[in-house]
Amino acid sequence: MSLSIKELRSIEPIRDDLGEPTESAEEYASRVQRLLPNFPNQVISQWFQEHDGVIEQHASLNYRTLKFELTTLGPAELNLPCLAEHATVVQYRDYFLKGVETPRMTRLAQFIQEHHTWPVPPLIFDNPDGKFEIRSGFKYSIPYDLLEGHHRMAVLYALQKHNQGRHKVWLIKR
Fold first, then answer.
1. Does the structure show a pLDDT above 90 at 3?
2. Rounded to the nearest 10 degrees, how much is the dihedral formed by the CA atoms of 106, 55, 28, 35?
3. Which of 35, 44, 62, 163 has its CB 3.0 to 4.6 Å from that of 29, i.e. a possible disulfide?
4. How far apart are CA 135 and CA 33, in angstroms?
C-alpha cells in the first residue's frame, strides 16, 4: 500500500525560514521510520532530509515496499552508461573538470583523493528489467538509476577513481 498524500507530507523535513532542517538527522530518521521502518537511518536523512522535493517526486516507487542493501559496485557497473553517462553527473563532472569550484566539490575531491572513494554511499535504484516507470511516463534507467549522489559520482568520475576498486552504494530494490 502506497503512502497517502497526507502521509507523504508528514514525512517532509521540518525546515526553518531559510530552508534549513530544524531536526537533527537522528530525530528526523526516527520520525520517518514510524511510517517507513524498512528505511535505514542514513538513507532517510541523506535522501529525504538533504534534498527538497524528492519525497513526492519518487513516491511512485512505493516506499513501503523498498528494500535497501548496502553493497559495492566496481568498474564494470560504474562504467555502465546509465551511471557514467547520467546527464546530471556528466554536467557536474564537466564543471569540475573545467575548474568551476564549489565548497561541496572541493570537499568531495579532497576526500576522494585521500580515500579513493566517496564519503557516503550514493542511492542507486535497481531496475534490471526496465519495467518500472512513474505515472507521468518517466522511465528509470536500466539496469540502475542514480537517485542520490550526483556530486559524489561526478567527482569520482572526474578523478578517475571509478576504475579503481569497489565503492559502497545503497542498492534500492522493489
1. yes
2. -150
3. 44
4. 26
